[in-house]
Amino acid sequence: MTPTETARLVALVTAMCPSTHPEETTAQAWHLLLADLDATDAWTAVIRLGRQRHHIAAADIRAEVRAIRNERLARAPLPLPDTDPDDPRRYRAELLAIVDAIASGRRIDRAPVTPADPPPRRSDPKHNVNSKRDLRTRSLRVPCPWCGAAPGGPCVVPRLGIPLRNAPAHEARLIAAGLANSGRERAGKDTETQ
Ligand SMILES: [Zn+2]
Questions:
Q1: How many other CB atoms sit within 10 Å of the CB of residue 171?
Q2: Which of 48, 63, 71, 117 is least surrounded by Cβ atoms within 10 Å, i.e. has the fewest?
């Protein structure tokens, strides 16, 4: 957001929440707090918040923008990067770029994960559950509690730092991402620790 856009946002909040009494420095302070946000998303966030509450703080706007971005990401599985997963640094960089493009709404296409994969059929929920590639993609949204891989980074063999080849992710990460039941946890910790 530019300072002008932030000032407009403060004006909108003031108009929506009459109890807000902005100081002269409010727009400046909010700009420090919110400058990295997309102006359109921030505007949408304020409107959504204004429907629910009487007071809106800068932190509320940031949280709502995050929710807006997560909603975009949640609409469908992420497409996989074209980069070879054996090059984890570039793979992660491309994946993060894809995540950001979709979260920001700049990219809305949802190309099939690979040409070889049949498109997921809505009538067949097992397809999503069973596709290892899809599991890997979806598990990347959360950090791995087992190997410590950050969101967007593939699970790695602890200490060696080699990305997993066979398993889509460590079981603990699949559970954390809601892709597996904790009842399967016993199998998790020794999954492909090599
Ligand atoms: Zn892991």
A1: 26
A2: 71
Q: How far is the CA of 102 from the centre of ligand 1 (A)?
A: 24
Poorest-pLDDT segment among 22-36, 72-86, 166-180:
72-86
**C-beta of residue 139 within 8 angstroms of C-beta of residue 168:** yes
| 109 pLDDT above the threshold of 70 | no
For 95, residues 6+ apart whose C-beta sits below 8 A from its C-beta are 78, 80, 81, 140, 152
DSSP per residue over 36-64, as a string?
TS-HHHHHHHHHHHHTT-S---HHHHHHH
- Ligand 1 centre to CA of 134 (Å) is 16
Return d(Cα 145, Cα 73) in angstroms, integer.
Answer: 21
Please count the residues of the chain: 194
| pLDDT reading at 114 higher than 70 | no
Domain ranges of the chain: 3-74, 88-188
